[in-house]
């Protein structure tokens, strides 16, 4: 008998409201590329969840399903090792969401820190779409349907993982058997990359991001716009490193840490211009994004093949989700016909 540990199962994904950007790449996509060699990985294109706060803009969501899939593959996701699928086409997820909703109160959903923050960001106040409020339950269904044990997320998504595990424990206690599986969050070394305007989060909707498929000119333009130190008016002025977006990026992309430490010391004492730093960062980002952009352009030439990849993954995902749903319904006594 083998004593080997079971292969981890990973569920992760993105809302297809636009192409992926550097924040996604650093926050979780790089981890997904590595983890696909170590685990059974499902990558979800969360179009149904994206609809909850994109009423009237549904075409944007559906148009971007292939765009996000292109970003996955261009960044190194292998469809032979990772299952890419569309959430709305795995109908078992909607049914599982319905059963899990009975195990959580509206008050508990409203206390979820991630949801509270998103409600404020979108200006919903009390006019919260019901689908948006139960977003954590839908996400729990996505995770538990595949019995995922690991979920790569940014630190702002940790409350969602906590709520998923609450629902798992509640369901298993309700049916008095172990049906669903708890999961653990996998945080990357860089949990969040700031926007180029200095805001805490890079976001396409805020216009402060750099797309993975950005052209050389777009990268250069974004770097020129980057927030540095507003008090560093002249080259000779001492500058502040903390909160300086250019240094935040260099901390991630400059491999020569000794050189970077020298630059920080020089900047703090004065005599180092922002243009020098931005030129250096531009060189690094061009190096990182050039191969991704090139591969993305190659893949985009055959949209039919892209759809085939997603279709195959969706069929595979439905098989796995259907098995879990069957176990859930049996545990609830909903197997009337055997």
Automatic annotation (TrEMBL):
Q: Which UniProt keywords apply?
A: Aminoacyl-tRNA synthetase, ATP-binding, Ligase, Nucleotide-binding, Protein biosynthesis
Q: Which Gene3D superfamilies match?
A: HUPs, Tyrosyl-Transfer RNA Synthetase
| Top EC class of this enzyme | ligase
Database matches in CDD domains: TrpRS_core
What the entry lists under InterPro entries is as follows: aa-tRNA-synth_I_CS, aa-tRNA-synth_Ic, Rossmann-like_a/b/a_fold, Trp-tRNA-ligase, Trp-tRNA_synthetase
Please give an example of a GO cellular component term from this record. cytosol
Reaction(s) this enzyme catalyzes, per UniProt: tRNA(Trp) + L-tryptophan + ATP = L-tryptophyl-tRNA(Trp) + AMP + diphosphate + H(+)
> Might you give the EC number(s) for this enzyme?
6.1.1.2
Query: One biological process GO term for this chain?
Result: tryptophanyl-tRNA aminoacylation
| Pfam families attached to this UniProt entry | tRNA-synt_1b (PF00579)
Example of a GO MF term: tryptophan-tRNA ligase activity
Q: Which domain of life is it from?
A: Bacteria
NCBIfam families on file: trpS
UniProt similarity note: Belongs to the class-I aminoacyl-tRNA synthetase family.
Name this protein carries in UniProt: Tryptophan--tRNA ligase
Native organism taxonomy: Bacteria, Pseudomonadati, Pseudomonadota, Betaproteobacteria, Burkholderiales
The gene name on file is: trpS
